[in-house]
Design a protein that fits this description.
Elements: E1 2-5, H1 6-22, H2 26-38, H3 42-61, E2 71-79, E3 82-85, H4 89-103, E4 128-134, E5 139-146, H5 148-151, E6 155-159, H6 164-179, E7 187-195, H7 197-207, H8 219-234, E8 248-258, E9 263-270, E10 277-280
Length: about 280
């Protein structure tokens, strides 16, 4: 049994919050630059230039890429040979979020009650935490700060099995095109297929963590990914919804087993500030 100190988790999470808010991942920035070079429309190229400049300023000066520093969503892989000393894992993550968002001067955006008492909790906690158990003595924590504008464009459909891949593709394309400029395109699109209504939404969000350029290992799903990005970009929404050839930077599809009577599909859209950061303890 390996012991990890509660305080070490708090410190690691605090650092992740600041890093994710200020530094765009290399694969995302590289894809934005590729899109800029390939974009034929001057207005769209100008917007992509601004996005690239903004990312550089944020990284160099360690200030947030966007004023919306998002809901702190965590995907955690916890080894069955790990014990947290000094408190609970989720408590440590929430304390780390409060630490990072406070010391990093990041905007807190979480309210205590969704309908009646919409009072800011301060410190951006509580976080949303997904925990997967695994064999071993490792602890990996991945943070996906999810902005409100792109999160609001998420969608779930419970399709019929007979709808097949064509039905899935139509739902995904319609969702992204209908979102227009609301999620601050160019976007990254996470798609979940299978499971249940709750599981498929988490799967779609987890798909956003896959690095740009890395297709699904199943060639059939990789073919769907290639089709989706082509069709979405043909819709002409473009950067910030003002027209252009690059509405989506990447599409990642993940799947899981499901009931014989079901075909759940979820779409989770991330803005061009597709922030993420990970730590292994």
């Amino acid at each position: 049994m390996r012991t990890i100190k509660y305080s070490d988790i708090v410190t690691a999470v605090g650092s992740l919050c600041v890093k994710a808010a200020c530094v765009l991942p290399d694969d995302v920035l590289a894809r934005i630059k590729e899109a800029r070079e390939a974009e034929p429309f001057p207005r769209a190229r100008g917007i992509l230039d601004d996005i690239i400049e903004n990312a550089g300023i944020a990284s160099n000066r360690r200030i947030p890429i966007c004023q919306d520093t998002g809901t702190a969503v965590f995907f955690v892989t916890l080894g069955d040979g790990v014990r947290v000393d000094g408190g609970g894992l989720v408590d440590a993550i929430n304390e780390g979020v409060r630490l990072g968002y406070t010391e990093g001067y990041l905007r807190p955006s979480i309210v205590s009650d969704p309908i009646f008492d919409r009072i800011n909790t301060g410190g951006n906690a509580p976080a949303v935490v997904h925990v997967d158990l695994a064999a071993g003595d490792g602890l990996e924590i991945t943070l996906l700060p999810k902005g409100g504008g792109c999160e609001n464009m998420s969608a779930l459909a419970m399709l019929k099995p007979s709808d097949g891949s064509a039905g899935v593709a139509k739902f995904v394309c319609d969702t992204v095109i209908r979102a227009g400029g609301n999620p601050c395109p160019p976007v990254i699109v996470g798609v979940g297929v299978g499971g249940t209504a709750d599981a498929v939404c988490a799967l779609a969000k987890k798909a956003l963590l896959r690095p740009i350029g890395e297709h699904n290992g199943d060639g059939r799903y990789a073919q769907i990914e290639r089709y989706l990005i082509k069709e979405i970009n043909a819709g002409g929404v473009g950067p910030q919804g003002l027209g252009g050839m690059h509405t989506a930077l990447w599409v990642a599809v993940e799947y899981m087993p499901c009931h014989i009577a079901s075909l759940p599909v979820a779409v989770c859209i991330n803005c061009h500030a597709a922030r993420r950061a990970a730590a292994i303890l």
